[in-house]
Design a protein that fits this description.
Order of helices and strands: EEEEEEHHEEEEEEEEE
Structural class: mainly beta
Distance between the termini: 37 Å
Strand order of the largest sheet: 1-2-3
Radius of gyration: 17 Å
Number of helices: 2
Helix content: under 10%
Oligomer: single chain
Largest sheet: 3 strands, antiparallel
Strand content: 35-45%
Amino acid sequence: IVQVDLGFGQILGLKADGTVVSTVTQDPIDEFRFDVSGLTDVVQIVAEVGAGFLYALKDNGTVQVVRSPYMEERNASPELIEAVSNWEDIVQIAIRDSGVAGLRSDGTVVTCAYTLANTGIDWENMISIISFNGTLFGLTKDGKAVFEKNSFTEGKYENEWDNIVELYPQVNYMLGIDQNGNALATALPADS
């Protein structure tokens, strides 16, 4: 197993061969479980449990969307599924609120079912994206940590970091690791 994520009452595992497996973690409620039996050539999985979607990034840069049986029965969000299924050249995916973001190999970010907040960030030249608590964060090619500015992030993640290689947003602060292996943290807001 090279990656795990949680579904509703199930643990999803991405195997090195690109297939996905799952195991039940509590009493089965089958209508909310993802059927992963047909997934192949997958390099990343991201489950959006509340909305009933599993996004599977394929090794050819496309994204396959799997709905839970409950969402499938109701034909939920066909526009989202069609839009995401038409994405190409994707290298990483992240969920945010009832939507998904994709990082293209050219460093641009595309979204579906939401728009990026007006942050003054062009969301280009990215090397990594991560979603935390309804907010999209990104690392730029020059090692800057960026994020959407909204009511959740106000005053929490401001930084002047350079040469960041990994990013770990938390509820009231953000951790980063720079290219020299140093751990950095943003200051906690005064009301924390």
